[in-house]
Amino acid sequence: MKEDKRTNRIFLVLNNRELDLFKKKAQHYNQMSAMIRDAVAQFDDKGTVKRIESLNKLADLMTEFNHEISKQGVNLNQITKRANELIYSGELNEEYYNQIILPQVSILKKMMTNIKKQQSDIFKRLLEI
Fold first, then answer.
1. Number of C-alpha atoms within 13 angstroms, CB side, residue 76?
2. Nearest Cα to 118, choosing from 75, 74, 110?
3. What pLDDT is stored for residue 13 in this prediction?
4. How many C-beta atoms lie closer than 10 Å to residue 84's C-beta?
5. Which of 122, 19, 6, 127 is nearest to 66 (CA)?
6. Contact yes or no for 62/119 (Cβ under 8 A)
7. First CA to last CA distance, the chain
């Protein structure tokens, strides 16, 4: 008898929901047992735990970074508000504000919004892994 011949059996008890899940996962396999063997061969508990830990650390860093971007957005709003106050009091040239300050503030706001979106997209892709 060859060593690689499958002669061992495992009895597995499932509820209806679990059985439906197994059937769904096994759709692309010839047999459900082939899907189970493949899943077990690919499963790495230590690797999975490390990936989850890395994702959690990344989520913490992204949250911290996102908070910092939000704080900078508040700073930009305060700068814009103060510049408007200075225009109305005559201490800041409105033309300078409109041609120099406002375009730069707009660029920074768009950049921060774009960074937040990219960050969110990256995190969503990582969760799919």
1. 19
2. 110
3. 95
4. 15
5. 122
6. yes
7. 40
Backbone angles phi, psi at 56, to 5 degrees: -65, -40
Count of positions (residues) in the chain: 129
- Torsion sign (Cα): 27, 33, 34, 39: positive
Tokens 């106050």 sit on residue: 85
What are the DSSP E strand ranges found in 52-129? Answer: none
Q: Which helix (H) or strand (E) holds 76?
A: helix 45-88
As a whole number, mean pLDDT of residues 27-46 equals 88
Phi then psi dihedrals of residue 72, to 5 deg? -65, -35
Q: Looking at this protein, which amino acid is placed at residue 115? A: I
Per the CB < 8 A criterion, the answer to whether 69 and 116 are in contact is: yes
Using pLDDT thresholds of 50, 70 and 90, give the confidence band for residue 51: confident
> Tokens 């774009």 — which residue?
114
